[in-house]
Automatic annotation (TrEMBL):
CDD domains associated with the record: YjeQ_EngC (cd01854)
Organism: Luteipulveratus flavus
Gene that specifies this protein: rsgA
Keywords: Cytoplasm, GTP-binding, Hydrolase, Metal-binding, Nucleotide-binding, Ribosome biogenesis, RNA-binding, rRNA-binding, Zinc
Subunit architecture: Monomer. Associates with 30S ribosomal subunit, binds 16S rRNA.
Binding residue positions for Zn(2+): C279, C284, H286, C292
EngC GTPase domain: residues covered: 108-254
Protein name: Small ribosomal subunit biogenesis GTPase RsgA
HAMAP family: GTPase_RsgA (MF_01820)
PROSITE patterns: ENGC_GTPASE, G_CP
Length: 352
């Protein structure tokens, strides 16, 4: 097992999954960057090579290598070729705008999703709940990081922690200052082998990444030209950490939405879904029905109206995305049918 891949998150399980590729003489590598079909893959932590993917025909958009994927590389003289992608442990997907239900793989094999929420602004809890849904949906563990704790006083931090915990039941919530490094040790011990950072613009993500990565972000620059069309470059999107593990910070992750994340919504709002189980009517809308456990929880203060509204909004969004996907699928089917019919007519005219 190539032990120098360990800092990138390689472990016994990955090695086992790779066994048949290894037997075929292929090398394991981790995808550090994807740019329109061009890949940069890490064969070693601090060094990447360019590669192209040659996967089996019929591979879906989602099956294409994404940042964080472990891949099998065939190191040919005219450039590295990715011939296989190991089954993913987790996947952050973005449904591509205007496209059919196919999602775009944004980041693979993320263990921990750090959701950065800036303390200097009034917390937008509904937005936090959306990032939580994206995190849960991917299969990773979300962690909420209240950033810039140096700009507010202790009481404000306490209130913010309470509010964030209300919006993120069962999720670890930390307050951190990248400026004074308060809380960064606790953050380091809260993250897994592969960590992605999400959050609104200005939330302090880049600053957080730099604080966690230390000088390492800058130190990955290395150049080697061996005349065989291979050279190394900096892959800033997969950042090896001095303490081990990697950070994933791809631009596309930053503005990700809820879309088709129905499981994620259920996990983000597990408290409301558990309450709804107790409603007298199975199809309770939690509006005016008698015996509604959800409105009862609002009445006795266990649940906020704000959170119920946020839950409903996410449900509507998921439902809307589902309907749009179904409509797109129908339109695509109709188009194919029309093309086939036109094709058939053409033949008909040719014959007669
Ligand atoms: N006082 C203080 N300021 C911080 C801290 N972390 C970030 N900032 C400031 O907050 C601003 C935004 O930080 P960034 O790290 O650029 O935020 P971002 O989330 O990466 O923003 P985008 O790139 O727009 O998505 C910058 O002016 C930082 O200097 C902190 O811990 N304390
Ligand atoms: Zn109800």
């Amino acid at each position: 097992m190539p032990s120098d891949l360990r800092p990138l998150g390689w472990d016994e399980e990955w090695a086992a999954a790779f066994a048949s590729y290894a037997a075929a003489g292929l090398l394991p590598a981790r995808v550090g960057r994807v740019d329109r079909g061009r890949l940069e893959v890490h064969l070693r932590p601090s060094e990447t090579v360019h590669a192209v993917a040659h996967l089996e025909a019929g591979a879906a958009v989602e099956d294409q290598p994404a940042v964080g994927d472990w891949v099998a590389v065939d190191p040919r003289s005219d450039g590295a070729v990715v011939t296989g992608v190991l089954p993913r442990r987790t996947l952050i997907v973005r449904s591509s705008a205007g496209r059919r239900s196919e999602g775009q793989a944004m980041a693979a094999n993320v263990d921990t999703v750090l959701i950065a929420v800036p303390l200097e602004r009034e917390a937008r809890l509904a937005q936090l709940e959306r990032f939580l849904t994206v995190g849960w949906e991917s299969g990773a563990r979300p962690v909420v990081v209240l950033t810039k704790s140096d700009v507010v006083d202790h009481d404000e931090i306490d209130v913010a922690l309470l509010r964030a915990r209300e919006a993120a039941p069962g999720v670890q919530v930390l307050a951190v200052s990248a400026e004074t490094r308060t809380g960064t040790d606790a953050l380091r011990s809260a993250i897994g082998a592969t960590t992605a950072v999400v959050g609104q613009s200005g939330a302090g993500k880049s600053t957080l990444v730099n604080a966690l990565a230390g000088a390492e972000v800058m130190a990955t620059q290395a150049t080697r030209q061996d005349g065989k069309g291979r050279h190394t470059t900096t892959a800033r999107e997969l950042i090896p950490l001095p303490s081990g593990g990697v950070l994933i910070d791809t631009p596309g992750l930053r503005g990700i939405g809820v879309h088709d994340a129905s499981d994620g919504v259920a996990q983000s709002f597990s408290d409301i879904e558990a309450l709804a189980e107790e409603c007298r009517f199975r199809d309770c809308t939690h509006e005016t029905e008698p015996g509604c456990a959800v409105t009862a929880a609002i009445d006795d203060g266990a649940l906020t109206r704000r959170r119920l509204d946020s839950y409903r909004k996410q449900l509507r969004e998921v439902e809307w995305a589902g309907r749009r996907n179904a409509a797109d699928a129908r339109a695509a089917h109709a188009k194919r049918w029309a093309e086939q019919t036109a094709h058939g007519k053409g033949h008909g005219r040719g014959v007669h």
